[in-house]
Amino acid sequence: MSDPLFPPPPPVEPKQRPPRPKPPKEVNISFAVWVLTAVVGLVIQVLDTNNFVTQYMKSIEGMPGAEALDAGTLKVIYLGAVIVVSALMVLFAWKMRSGRNWARVLITVLTVIQLMTQAATVGFSVSLDAWLPLLSVLVAATGLVYMFVPPSNAYFREMTKINLASRPR
Q1: What is the pTM of this model?
Q2: Pro residues composition bias: which ranges (predicted)?
């Protein structure tokens, strides 16, 4: 039984979300580049684990406390970090593909930092033994360009509007 002084509230119509646009092919290409980069990077790092551990152990040799970290522990920590970083990169690429502009910005910042670090450690010279770093620069540049071409920009603008409109007020 309802109280005449306090009638029940009128039924609330659920808010209709606008249809989500499909990502344009440029965003899908960029997504594929970032996933491929993460997977290839993971494989390269896993294959290079022993080299990393050897170099690191040589670099800390003779330092106080160097004996506290054995090669097996270092290998496990290194592989764990490599797997986590690769998984995060795939997650960010996935979020970017679903229209999250923050993920696009984050991927851009991380890629620029990576390229600056690579330029500082490898240098800008092009030699026959530097083909892998040069290839990774070209792949990263491809991913960045495809994230910011006009169809991609339009997609991210539209997704931002949809996401803001669907937020509870």
Answers
A1: 0.78
A2: 1-13
